Amino acid sequence: MAEINHFEYGWITPALSYALSVLGSALGLVCAGRIRTAATGGQRAWWGLLAAWAIGGTAIWAMHFMAMLGFAVQGTRIRYDVPLTAASTGIAVAAVGIGLFIVGTGRLNALRLIAGGLFTGAGVAAMHYTGMAAMRLDGDLGYDSTRVALSVLIAVVAATVALWLAMTVRRGLAIAASALLMGVAVNGMHFTGMSALSVHLHDRPGDVAGTSVSSLLVPIVLAVILVIVGLVYALLAAPTEDDRAAVAYLAARQSAEPPAPAAAPEPAADPVGLRARSTLGQPGTPFPSRRQPPR
């Protein structure tokens, strides 16, 4: 059995993975809060998609990949299968999006919350083990079934709590505290699942196919940065509840005010004083008589 190191670069990879999970959770909670105040179905779908990208793509999947940068197996190189890695991203985003749809389409109750948590938690666990299956190394992977079950249980509980927070938390301080808690849960699920892994190296070393971590790091980091910038821009550009309340107040105030009286028409300009000299046609002015010619 090969020796496994989960922290090859020390504290830097777990610290960055936790920071990503907290940042993605905070952005996702803010976007989920906009779902409840959206006026139309299209707006709710838009904010739900953004929340799914923030939580599923950044808080969960990007955190997973960042933590995997510190994963090493003594005696073999590690490569990644790109299609499976991309599929794990889609699984994470879709699982969170469907979970938000389950709990956010009607009145929140225990049945909806449990159903959404079960589906999302199972999707998060599927994302994790799909990402692990994308690893290519000179050996065979094995898993401890008890720890795998524990990691799935943590994923379901964490997903249920995350969905409940997404539907109930509104204040800034509560969002920050919830994001810190969600970061602990996501990282706890990841490292619990990683602790279940064992690697048995092959007797004869062979070539390892796939893409190296360094080749995947740059595009993934750029994608994460673009997603975060896009989410922040969408949040800053969207009107808040205070903005909508102010617009409604101004509209109600304008409708309540009486209309202003019409202004009297101003007389036309008379620069040379023709109007003052002429009295023809004015009331009380006699009409001039025509003089008779002499006979």
Automatic annotation (TrEMBL):
Listed name of the protein: MHYT domain-containing protein, NO-binding membrane sensor
MHYT domain span: 9-200
Domain of life: Bacteria
Pfam families hit by this protein: MHYT
GO cellular component: membrane
Region (Disordered): 257-295
Matches recorded under InterPro entries: MHYT_dom
Lineage: Bacteria, Bacillati, Actinomycetota, Actinomycetes, Micromonosporales
Organism: Micromonospora coxensis
UniProt keywords, alphabetically: Membrane, Transmembrane, Transmembrane helix
Transmembrane intervals: 15-33, 45-72, 84-103, 110-128, 148-166, 173-196, 216-236
